[in-house]
Amino acid sequence: MPHLKRALALGVLTALLLSAADVPKPKVRAITAFITIDAKSYPVQIAGAVKFLSQMRDAVKAAGYDVAGIRISTQPFPEYTRGLRHDEALKVLHGIDDLAGKLRFAPNIGPAMVQDTDDSAPIELITEVLATPGNRLNANIVTAGDDGIHWNAVRQAAVIIRTVGARSPRQAGKSQFCRHRHAEAIRAVLSRCLASRRAAQFRHRARSRECGDGRLLAGTRSA
């Protein structure tokens, strides 16, 4: 069934793109899949998503669009590292990072905290990951929502920025981290591609604040 759904999605996408062949085409920054993974099966789950995204990228390119790359965003990483020892959790995140290099996709592992009452233990984990030289993983933290400012998250974000900046060469690690201040705006984008996913899994780069322009979103869940 998942294969049939993917085939149908690919077919519909191709038909839509070809029907717009004469329309001026914007540059597609990233074709993105939002997937749910676990600590044991993530290599297979990510490889399947990359295969699907690559097929979609080829279809989009065949229709005359310029595609910059593919992106995979997981559920918040504390969900699939919960219960693991610190070294085990690091191994999982570094494993995702290695896959991103081998399979050539941009990885986003979601927010370290979504609610202000969330456990702050993942902060130490993501700080260590972001400070690793050559790290490819993007992560974020939600510092405000419908319930107001998340003051604990604000403090934790400051810790991440200060610590990663001090540890990483030329403070490069800070560019892989973003503080989300407006979760509702992100939720509006995500709801169109994966209704059950929480908002704030999508990272704005500091130099590219728009969270939809130039991106083709492909909602998919791994089995």
Order of helices and strands: HEHEHHEHEEEHEHE
Beta-strand residue fraction: 15-25%
What is the share of helical residues?
40-55%
- Helix/strand class: alpha/beta
State the main characteristics.
alpha/beta, Anaerobic Ribonucleotide-triphosphate Reductase Large Chain, six-stranded parallel beta sheet, two-stranded antiparallel ribbon, 7 helices, 16% strand, globular
Write structural notes for this entry.
- With 223 residues, this protein is α/β, with parallel strands linked by helices.
- It has helices spanning 2-19, 42-62, 77-81, 86-103, 121-130, 151-167, 183-190; strands at 30-35, 70-74, 106-111, 138-142, 144-145, 148-149, 177-180, 215-219.
- The strands form two sheets. The protein has a six-stranded parallel sheet with strand order 7-4-3-2-1-8. The chain has a two-stranded antiparallel sheet with strand order 5-6.
- The radius of gyration is 18 Å and the shape is globular.
